[in-house]
Design a protein that fits this description.
The protein is an alpha/beta fold. The chain has helices at residues 15-24, 36-42, 44-52, 67-77, 93-107, 124-129, 136-149, 162-169, 196-201, 211-214, 219-234, and strands at residues 6-9, 31-34, 56-63, 84-88, 112-116, 154-156, 174-177, 206-208. The structure holds cytidine-5'-monophosphate.
């Protein structure tokens, strides 16, 4: 089902607005993503919105701390029954391994740890300022390999990276791609964008589409059109 590959971020400032936004796309997207804006304010009640709407939960918490703390955060997430949680690959191999082990122990394979490699807001010169030499895209691959060797099997990546990550990591990696825009819709602040069909054809398993759905007059209809584009990408 192509709609199950669409992740809709609940990028809303309050629980009430997030609940209303989720209800508007009920049945039209497979996964609802809760990010820091909503989670910091509303906590587990925000995480519960996914299940309330029959969708899978993507807890976009971007965990990055010492291994013990990240492992315990994953354990704390267990009651929310999430399908995805994000961690920063830059947290290092021990942190990543502990995150994956705890996720497997708590959720028996249902919870996939997704590594964020290089934030798309950083470019080569930002990395150089941190002492990382070379191109951002090489660092993405370096961090992805490191995460893979720690047992991470899922990755968040931009449309510009999805092809090289698929080639590098093979068919068993789970790739989730934001920066997706249906043909003809506004890019917003996304710089490197792809259409749903292109992102899927390049190897994405899931696409994150926010504003083109959230700001549509009929969000469910917008999501259904995107699902049709996903189906074309698969074909
Ligand atoms: O489709 P739209 O640009 O509105 O979706 C943005 C969503 O994708 C936000 O939740 C944002 O945090 C997330 N995201 C992103 N770019 C990344 C990683 C995540 O836009 N590189």
């Amino acid at each position: 089902m192509s709609h199950s590959r669409i992740v809709f971020p609940l990028d809303y400032p309050s629980l009430a607005e997030a609940r209303a936004g989720a209800a508007r796309v009920r049945g039209a997207v497979g996964v609802l993503k809760v990010g820091l804006e909503l989670f910091v304010k509303e906590g587990p009640a925000a995480l519960a919105i996914a299940k309330e709407n029959g969708a899978d939960l993507f807890a976009d918490l971007k965990l990055h701390d010492i291994p013990e703390t990240v492992e315990r955060a994953i354990a704390s997430l267990a009651p929310a029954d999430a399908r995805f949680v994000t961690v920063h690959a830059a947290g290092g191999q021990a942190m990543l391994a502990r995150a994956v082990e705890r996720a497997d122990r708590e959720a028996g394979g249902r919870l996939t740890v997704l590594a964020v490699t290089v934030l798309t807001s950083l470019d080569d010169s930002d990395l150089a300022a941190q002492g990382v030499v070379g191109r951002a895209q090489d660092h993405v691959l370096r961090l992805a390999r490191l995460a893979w060797s720690a047992g991470v099997r899922g990755f968040v990546c931009s449309p510009a990276e999805v092809r090289s990550l698929r080639t590098e990591l093979g068919p068993h990696a789970i790739l989730v791609t934001p920066g997706v825009r249906p043909a003809g819709s506004a890019a917003g602040d996304q710089k490197r964008i792809a259409t749903p069909a292109q992102a899927i054809a390049d190897g994405a398993d899931f696409i994150v589409v926010g504003r083109p759905i959230r700001d549509a007059a009929d969000p469910a209809a917008a999501a259904r059109e995107i699902a049709a584009e996903v189906a074309r990408g698969v074909a």
